[in-house]
Amino acid sequence: MKTLFIGGIKSGKSINAQKHILKNSITKPTYLATTEFVDAGMKERIDAHIENRGDDFETLEEPLKIYEVIKTNKNPVLVECVSMWINNMFYHSFSLEDMKKELTKILELNQDIVFVLNDVGSGIIPDNKLSRDFIDASGKLSQLIASECDEVYHTIAGISTRIK
């Protein structure tokens, strides 16, 4: 089964995705952490996620080649988070087409996967090309993921509502 949790930053989507995969897993799930250490602020966010998940997950870190990690994993996988993965891919000069190919391969796997993604497309159009490219890519990739997921949850104020 494939599931997507989408919502704004600090909406509670990560916690709810963790609860969801733990509730629905027979084996200890894998937490695929995609965030690269960038600065002290990101380290604080990463540390908070580590504390929240505790020992409930096997943690693997991979900022780019997430298909390679997921395809060899036998346990359900929580991808935390697709938004940071998109950021990493742009930073390392990968194209939107590269991202689509990677996600398409993942979505074709016969495996339980929960994706976490920030909903960044509800604001204004940014004044710089990189931000516009990121928002556009995030929107297009969220549509790809949601179209292939069995369940999609939108999270606001800590409440996840099933929309698919």
From TrEMBL:
GO MF: adenosylcobinamide kinase activity; ATP binding; cobinamide phosphate guanylyltransferase activity; GTP binding
Classification via SUPFAM superfamilies: P-loop containing nucleoside triphosphate hydrolases
Keyword Nucleotidyltransferase included in the entry's annotation: yes
Species annotation: Sulfurimonas gotlandica (strain DSM 19862 / JCM 16533 / GD1)
PANTHER family, per the entry: BIFUNCTIONAL ADENOSYLCOBALAMIN BIOSYNTHESIS PROTEIN COBU, PTHR34848
Gene3D superfamilies assigned to the protein according to its UniProt record, in alphabetical order: P-loop containing nucleotide triphosphate hydrolases
Pathway recorded for this protein: Cofactor biosynthesis; adenosylcobalamin biosynthesis; adenosylcobalamin from cob(II)yrinate a,c-diamide: step 5/7; Cofactor biosynthesis; adenosylcobalamin biosynthesis; adenosylcobalamin from cob(II)yrinate a,c-diamide: step 6/7
Name of protein: Adenosylcobinamide kinase
Sequence similarity: Belongs to the CobU/CobP family.
Keywords noted in UniProt: ATP-binding, Cobalamin biosynthesis, GTP-binding, Kinase, Nucleotide-binding, Nucleotidyltransferase, Transferase
Matches recorded under InterPro entries: CobU/CobP, P-loop_NTPase
One of the GO BP terms on file: cobalamin biosynthetic process
Catalytic activity line of the entry: adenosylcob(III)inamide + ATP = adenosylcob(III)inamide phosphate + ADP + H(+); adenosylcob(III)inamide phosphate + GTP + H(+) = adenosylcob(III)inamide-GDP + diphosphate; adenosylcob(III)inamide + GTP = adenosylcob(III)inamide phosphate + GDP + H(+)
Function of the molecule: Catalyzes ATP-dependent phosphorylation of adenosylcobinamide and addition of GMP to adenosylcobinamide phosphate.
Annotated positions binding GTP: G7, G8, I9, K10, S11, G12, K13, S14, E61, E80
Record EC number: 2.7.1.156, 2.7.7.62
